[in-house]
Amino acid sequence: MTRTPNFVSWRAAILHRADDNIERLKRQLERLGVTVLVQWKPLDLAETPADIVLVDADQGWDDLLPWDGDDAPVPVVALLGSEAPGRIAWALGKGAGALIAKPVTASSVYPALVLATHAHHERTAVKARIAGLEERLRLRPIVYDAMRSIMAVQGGDETGAYRTLCRLAMQRRLTVEHVAAAIVAGHEPVPRAM
After folding, report:
1. Residue 69, Cβ neighbours under 10 Å: how many?
2. 147-175 as b/e, with b when 16 or more CB fall inside 10 Å?
3. Beta bridge partners of residue 52, listed in sequence order
4. Is-contact 67 73, C-beta < 8 A?
5. Do 16 and 96 belong to one domain?
6. What are residue 12's DSSP bridge partners?
7. Model confidence pTM above 0.85
8. What is the pLDDT of residues 9-65, one digit of tens each?
């Protein structure tokens, strides 16, 4: 089971015009221990640090949030009062992982924060995994070059050369790709028969 986060000491940026909904939202966030800043101008996280962003998806525009959905640096919650598909698509395109329907109710705030935070962590983990796999794929020719060097020295086959690379990687506590790169670059000697 996934643990639900504690939002005490978090900073929230609410990108919305001030109104009664936002006052209710702000009070509920403050009850959860969140420091809140309300503004209706484009967000600059360097100027306005935030751990989570709640944004008016009904009237938001592209420059309001300076990222695309997959690049959202923090969890995003959409505040939405309409069912317009274009507004929902805009919110998703900006990385919204949860929705709070307007008019805002106190009981909708905490679940939305939890869902947005979870979605953001999942998205970040997937991006990191893809980046790791892409690097491994990019380094695959180097692994093969190292295997050919090992086969030339040891006289074995590809399976034996790969086992040698794996054994070296475990001994050095590095990835196979990094050991192979060190062998190809000449920083690691080509291992003799083990």
Report:
1. 16
2. bebbbeebebeeebbbebbeebbeeeeeb
3. 12
4. yes
5. yes
6. 36, 52
7. no
8. 999 999 999 999 999 999 999 999 999 999 999 999 999 899 999 999 999 999 999
Torsions phi, psi for 182 (to 5 deg) = -65, -40
pLDDT band of 1, cuts 50, 70, 90: very low
Domain end residue (candidates: 128, 143, 170): 128
Contact between 97 and 120 (Cβ < 8 Å)? yes
Statement to judge: residues 88 and 160 lie in one domain: no
CA pair distance 77, 92, nearest whole angstrom: 10
The tally of domains found in the chain comes to: 2
* Average pLDDT score over residue span 73-80: 96
Answer yes or no: do 156 and 65 share one domain.
Answer: no
Highest mean pLDDT among 17-21, 112-116, 156-160, 180-184: 112-116
Single out the residue of 123, 125, 121, 112 nearest to residue 34, CA to CA.
Answer: 112
Q: Is residue 44 part of a domain?
A: yes
> What is the distance between the alpha carbons of residues 55 and 112, in angstroms, rounded to a whole number?
12
Which residue range is the domain that position 142 belongs to? 132-185
